[in-house]
Batch of 4 targets.
Target 1
Amino acid sequence: MRDYVALIRQIEGVYPSAAGGTSRDEPLRASLVPYFNTLLKEIEREQRWSGSYIQTPIVTVSGAARYPMPTGMLTIERVFRVESNRDVVTLELYDPQELRRVYGEGAFVVPGPPVKYAFVPTDLVGDPSGGGTMIEFYPTPNGVYTIFVEGHQALVPIGETSGTTTIASTVLTVPSTVYLTNIGIVTTGTYLSIRGAGDLGVGGVADTHLTTWVNFASATTITLGTATPTAVPALGAQCFFNSVNWLLTSFDKVVLFGVLRMVASYLRDDAGYVMWEQRYQHELDLMRGYEFDRARTQELLAVGVSGQRQSELRRADQVTGYDIRGG
């Protein structure tokens, strides 16, 4: 699939009422984005997928030990830095209290190249907002180091424009940057899709895939600010942010059948629900098979034993998450 709009078109091909509008099922149309985002969370719980694996750098400041966790990181598999001679130094995870006893704290800290790390709740380090996690390096960095955090990120949800979106609408409400950021939407100007909303009749806006916030229509520019949402003139249009997802482009049937079973449940289409559920599980199994084959092939070819197609070393169990011990 090209993007989220392509998914909607296929859903509406099976269940036309999902097109919404005054003459169809507007609550169902408005539920498609929540259904999609719920499915992402469901797939996310199944396992850690290679498509969600990311590497995020943290650049240290001399004398500063604590840094915010990378946004959207679900699990941490590895934390490392690279020396000037290209040697890789893997940082080890320990309890922060143990590390403080070894490396000191406050006036007793002796800075140096980081070799270990810990997790600390933000409310314990003076952050009034609380509720988050910071990563703390030991020894306290004595200079600028680029420390890479590798792990799995959350599948980024779709953001949808709010307000009335039927064909009778003359205004498209575009969420502000703050709104988008608060729900995890990246506002870097990529992956924006436009489609006609509600009943796609006369005067509807044709589907469009854009990669910038500008040129919304032939003569309309979207301006995202940090103040109140901006009203943009349009005829019955919707705007979807982060509309491209690796699941949609690589495993589109998983997403399609997963959402269709939710639509069937909403419409009380019991036979349809059973059919879509079976197809969804089948496609999900194919996706798991791809993950297994990919990981196995990488292991076999990374360190091969002469004359055999098997690995020389066995992989240890990977860390499935991060926690704060003793806190």
Target 2
Amino acid sequence: MVGLIKQVWRVSGIYLVWTILHFCASQLYTKFCTPLNLIGFISSPFLVTTPHCQAFKWCINNGSDALSSMWIVFGTWIISHLS
């Protein structure tokens, strides 16, 4: 039982980290790379190529992939333990 709790904590910790990274990167991307005003509209083609915007985009894309994969893993784990 203790091993199971450690395993669930480890998996949920990774899920929590990816959730936080994805959320923060999404918020920061809209603030710094595509501001919601006329200047933001004009400058966004230049801003999205900057290193920090590329890093935010990487976190958003890989975070959503990791979260999707984790739902599949979670569903598979639940199904395997039900039968």
Target 3
Amino acid sequence: MVLGETIFPKPNPYPWDQVTAEQEAEFWEGIDPEVRGVEGYLQYVSHDVSYEAGARVVRAYLLRHGVSIAEAHRLPNDELYWRSG
């Protein structure tokens, strides 16, 4: 996922960069942040949100540890998450 974004950075502004405070407040009023399990994931997390969260973890890991994308690709998910900062 991050390889494409490294070669071709996301456009600015990106759609969620233009979210207003009112839109964000409306979002938080309409969800249950304590929901658990696959059902909660499917109900509240879109593919775009999942992609962005994963991409941020990987980008942070790359910046913090100075490894290549190929090296990071071989790492287990828990290593990427817990050591991304």
Target 4
Amino acid sequence: MAAMSDTLEISFLDHVTGNAAYSAPSAVYLGLTTSSGGFTDGNTGTEVVGNGYQRQAITFGASSTSSIASNAAVTFPRSTAGQGTVYGWGIFSGQSAGDLLYHGMFSSSRAVLVDESFYVASGAISLTPSGAMQGHLFQNWSNLTLRNVSWSMPAALYLAICLDNGTEPSWHDHASNTLDSSDSYNDKRKAGLINGANETYGGYQRVKITFNSASNGTAAMATSTTRDAGRWDNSAARSTTWDSTNSRLTNYGKTVLRNWTDRVEFPIVPNTYDFVVGGATTSSGGVDYTPMSHVEVGGSLYTISNGYERHYGYAADYKIFDAETGGNLLFQGEFDPLVQVNDAWDVLRIPASDIALVAA
């Protein structure tokens, strides 16, 4: 089991949130500790000292998404006198002084007597992802810190939710007027529906988030930005004049960016289909509305029975990506219990404190 030091945790969080790029050391060094609990996150363990001891350079093979391991044996100089019992190891940014980066325990302790060399086999020092960190993030971060392989800070971060069926709600690409059609059930009955060129409904989109500089191993959310999609043409001004040609309001509203500091808020999902393709007309407040009976997906119309509601369902997980659509998954966590957003017009709100990033 290995862990990042407090110092490296701060660098990690600042790098991944775009607050400060991490400058990796050109080489890393293996050190030994005689503390029975090993080195601590705050580097308070007792390192071997004197009697011929010196940290030794250690190298690592290319990281995968699930692990990284040393790729050459490390042999310490012969001791000129007993050095005590070695319990754990640390990886440092310098042969002397420098920062503790990672630390862990050997599978068994060993006393180093006079005229002995402490030997660490190739592959004996290894690290795996921990906490909410996902494979892509682990691979790039470990290659950066242990092999000095360049990895630029993500340009932006986006929060996604995952339903209890394991997928994100359907999303709408306004530019191309297409849907994510990986789940036809959600496309037709849940959030993110579209109909017609240059039109959009309020519905699911990933929410852009920013974080404050890290402190005490945690990066708190600074802001979230909800792209609250208007009902109709986003390029036109808001107008509630009735459009008799299309049997709808001329333009219910434009896209609005809303910034929050106390929460992440996903857009409202309305419960009726306001564009006429068929169905019975109803009246409300002196205005006629016709529920939409079809939804356009990839140029084809699919029948929707009147009364189907659009909602998020049950949110099981949250995910943080480096892109608004697609992109690389960086962090993932669970909602316990599930977040129920099962009513039309519900807004999914997540407190900012639930989105704080923790290094491990």
